[in-house]
Amino acid sequence: MRGNVFLEKENIKSKKGEAVRFSKKQRVIVQETIVNKVKIIGIRIVSIAVCSNHVHFVAEYVDVPIGVVVGTYKNAGRVALRKQGFEGRVWTRGFDKRYCFDEKELRTKSEYVLKHE
Fold first, then answer.
1. So what's the pLDDT on residue 2?
2. Each residue of 18-35: pLDDT tens digit?
């Protein structure tokens, strides 16, 4: 099933460079790095999927701005990939966020993320 064709065209027009595609090894590096960072900063990840060109995760609520949380994970992933010889831009600016207001939403969003594994 194709996504939104208009959105796809707009995304292509706004690209500043080639799309980043992580190899299987790089996806593992990013996931392990995020999971290890979680242990250090103490934010529980409910579900995570590192895809070839983006990351999905569902995290518990914390009293820290979501931009700080995402920035922490992006930076950790970037540093880990650089240590393995990755060159060039790793992440785009910004992120998408969705909030869960009850257990059903949490379960639905977690299932969505896990479908990407």
1. 61
2. 778 999 999 999 999 999
Distance CA 74, CA 81 (A): 11
pTM score, whole prediction: 0.80
pLDDT(14) > 80: no
Instruction: Give the count of beta carbons closer than 10 Å to the beta carbon of residue 72.
Output: 17
Name the nearest CA neighbour of 87 among 26, 11, 32: 26
- Listing DSSP states for 22-91 in one string gives --HHHHHHHHHHHHHHHHHHTPPEEEEEE-SS-EEEEE---SS-HHHHHHHHHHHHHHHHHHTT--S---
- Distance CA(80)–CA(26), nearest Å, equals 9
Tokens of 53: 């060109």
Q: Would you say 22 and 8 are in contact if contact means Cβ atoms under 8 Å apart?
A: no
Q: 111 phi and psi, to 5 degrees?
A: -65, -40
pLDDT class for 3, splitting at 50, 70, 90?
low
